[in-house]
C-alpha cells in the first residue's frame, strides 16, 4: 500500500501537468489571400514561421474554404481582403477576417490567442514602418489592423501554472480520501465500536487518527515540491516555509472534512461518494482549470467557501510571484478560520454514543 | 455471591423510529455473579447491552452500571467495564502484541503494566509462539479467547460478553467457560449473552428476553422447576412459544 500511496500521485503529477497544459500544437492553418501583396505575403510567412501552425491549404474562395472547415479539414481560415496593403498605407487601417473551428471551444480560444499574438507582432512592425513613412506628419497610428482580440497569459507559462495547482489537488485528495475512508472502515469492521467503549477522550482519538494523515500530507507536499523543482524546473520564488505553514493549517481543514464525512456515513461506499461530491465541486471551483474571474457572479461567491481555492491561490502566489506573508494574510486567516469551524463541527458530530 | 447490586436497570427502552427494540426492561445484577442474558435472534440483547456499556443512548429509562448512570456518566461507566462485541473487533492487521499494547494504552495502563499483562496473558493462553503473528491469521477460537483477555486488561468490575462463543467448537467453548469461571472467581461480574442452552446452565441467574421484553429472570434451577421441565432448552422453547 505504501508504495502505491507515493508512486501513483507522482505519476499523476507527471502525466497531468503535461496533459493539462493548454498548449495547442499542429493547428491546421489555411488562408485566402485576395491581395497578393508584399504585406499579405509577409503576414502569411509569420504564420509559417510559427511552431504552432501548419499551413495546409491556400484557398481561392471563401466558399471553398468554408466547405473544408465544415468537413473538419482545417482549423483556422485567415482571409486577407483585397487592397489590404493599399488600405494599410493610405488609411492606416484595414480589416482581417479570421474563422476558427470552435468545436473544441477551449482549443479555439487558445488558437485565437496565438493568432492575435502573431497579428499583433505584425501590427507592431508595420506600424513602425508606417511611422517611418509618415515621419513628417507625426501621426500616431493607434491600431492599424483591427481584429477582435483578447489577451491571455503567455501560453508558455501553463506548466508553471499547472504544476503547483496539481500538487494542491494531490495533497488534498489523498488526505481527504484516506482520512474519510479510514475511520469509516473502522466502523465497518467494528473496531470503532470497541474504541468507543473505552474511556478514550474524543480529542485523543481524533488526533491519534488524523495525525498520521497530516504528516502524510506534508510528506506528499515535500516530494511534490521536489518534483516541481527538479523535473519541471518550476521556480520557487517565495519563502518555502510559508507554503508549509499554510499547508499545515490547510490540512487541518481537509482532515476535518474527512472526519465530518466519516461521521455521517456508515460504509466506505457512502463515504467515497460524498468525498467525491465535494472533491469535484472543489476542483472545478478552485480556479485551477477555469479562472475565478471568468466565472458567473454566483459561482465566484461559492468559491469563497472552497478551501482549495485559497491553497491554489497561495501556492501560486508564493511559488511564482514570491509573495510574502503580508501578501497572503487574507487567505491565510480565512483558512485558519475554516480550520477552527470545520474541526469544531467534526469533533462535535463525532459521537461516542448514539 | 453478595447481594450488592452492580447493575440496576429501570424501565429501560430503546426505539429505532417506530420499532421498539428494547421495551421497558427492569432488572438488577449482583456483584460477582454470572448473569446470562438469553433471547432469540433479534430479541434486543445486543441493543440492551449497548445501552449498559454507554455507546447507545436509551430512549427512556435509566441504568446504573458500576455506580455510574449510563445517561449522564457514560465515560465513567466505560472505565469500569470491559466489553467483547458480538463481532470480533480487534485490529486484524496488527500483531497480538500490538493489539494488547494498543488497547492497554487506551485504558491508560503504564508501559510496565502492559508488559506484565502481556506476559501473563500470553502464558495463560499459551500463545508464546504467536506473539508476533497478525491477529487476522489466528483461528476463531483463539481470537475469541484473546479478545476476552484484552477486555479484562484494565481489570474492570464487570465484563460484558456478547455471544462470546458463537461459532466455535465444543472444546474451545468449554475452555472459554473455564476462563469465565476463573474470572468470576476473582470477583468480576460477568454479563453474557448466548444462544447455547447448555451454557445457560452455567450461569448463576438468567433472564430470557422475548421481543424486547424480559419474560423471565431466575436461576436455571428455579426456572426449570417453575416450568416443570428438565433442561433450559425446554424452558426457552416454552417461553418463546407462549408469546407467539
Ligand atoms: N441501529 C439500528 N437501527 C434499527 N434497528 C435496529 C438497530 N439495531 C438493532 N435493530 C433491530 O433491533 C432488534 C434487536 O436487535 P439486537 O441486535 O439487539 O438483537 P439480538 O437480541 O442481539 O439478536 P442476535 O441474537 O441475533 O444478536 C432487531 O430487530 C434489529 O433489527
Ligand atoms: Mg446480538
From TrEMBL, chain A:
Transmembrane segments: 161-184, 205-228, 240-261, 273-292, 331-350
Family statement drawn from the similarity comment of this UniProt entry: Belongs to the ABC-2 integral membrane protein family.
Record's bilayer topology term: Multi-pass membrane protein
Protein's UniProt name: ABC transporter permease
Taxon lineage: Bacteria, Pseudomonadati, Bacteroidota, Flavobacteriia, Flavobacteriales
Domain ABC transmembrane type-2 per the UniProt entry, residue ranges: 115-353
Pfam families: ABC2_membrane_3 (PF12698)
This protein's UniProt keywords: Cell membrane, Membrane, Transmembrane, Transmembrane helix, Transport
Compartments where located: Cell membrane
Record-linked InterPro entries: ABC-2_transporter_component (IPR051449), ABC2_TM (IPR013525), ABC2_TM_bact-type (IPR047817)
Gene3D superfamilies: abc type-2 transporter like domain
Automatic annotation (TrEMBL), chain B:
PROSITE patterns: ABC_TRANSPORTER_2 (PS50893)
Entries under Gene3D superfamilies matching the protein: P-loop containing nucleotide triphosphate hydrolases (3.40.50.300)
Domain ABC transporter: 7-236
InterPro entries in alphabetical order: AAA+_ATPase, ABC_transporter-like_ATP-bd, P-loop_NTPase
Xref: SMART domains: AAA
UniProtKB keywords: ATP-binding, Nucleotide-binding
Protein name: ABC transporter domain-containing protein
Biological source species: Flavobacterium palustre
